[in-house]
Amino acid sequence: MITPKDINILIACEESQAECLAFRKRGFNAFSCDIQKARFEPQYHIQGDVAPLLAGTTQFTTQDGIQHTVDKWHLILAHPPCTYLCKVSSVHMRINGEIQPERYAKMLEARAFFFDCMGANAPFVAVENPIPMRLARLPRPSCYVQPYWYGEKYSKKTLYWLKNLPPLLPAVTNPVFKEFVKSSRGKYRSRTFPGIANAIADQWGKYILDELNRTENP
Q1: Element housing 124 (H / E)
Q2: Please, are residues 66 and 54 in contact by the beta-carbon 8 Å criterion?
Q3: What pLDDT is stored for residue 180 in this prediction?
Q4: How far, in Å, CA of 207 to CA of 214, rounded?
Q5: Which pLDDT band, with edges at 50, 70 and 90, does 54 fall under?
Q6: Helix (H, G, I), strand (E, B), or coil: what is residue 8?
Q7: Which helix (H) or strand (E) element contains residue 158?
Q8: Which burial class, exposed, middle or buried, applies to 17 when counting CB atoms under 10 A from its CB (0-12, 13-18, 19+)?
Q9: In this structure, are residues 78 and 159 in contact, taking their beta carbons and an 8 Å threshold?
């Protein structure tokens, strides 16, 4: 019988540890990774380049200096930087109608990393980003969420590209009516809302646990 502690989860590009700690509270063996230091729990954070982990590296050292080895990553949930990909930044891409070469090159670099995240070496993968600019030509997302679906009084449409995972469903408890929400600009910027983090850990954690037990014991 597979239990949450048997499931290894990597949250890529996360220094806030919102999702990492949400999974940890539910018993999963989760780690965050970012070039920045951990916001809360260094023993669960890998500070450095996430690329080798996306490619399947399972030996790593957490911020507290302890070395770890896992057999494999079951879920990789990635938050690639969106500065040069998102729709709201497209206003900086052109000046007087002309595409700026330096900005365009950074967009292509960000796009390549986005696809590296989508191709992460794990049976279950989720990649998060805001609405992308057309020029980036990202594939159609699998689903989207809003913070007010999960009890948060903010609006921030967030997209997910999924591999072997179901779309996130709105919460059925603590609803917040849309007319009472406000823009999240400046609030939880580059961080996951607690309500969404808990929904991710609850819904995808249970789904992966059920799937692995089903395939282990058909």
Answers
A1: strand 124-129
A2: no
A3: 59
A4: 10
A5: very high
A6: strand
A7: strand 158-163
A8: buried
A9: no
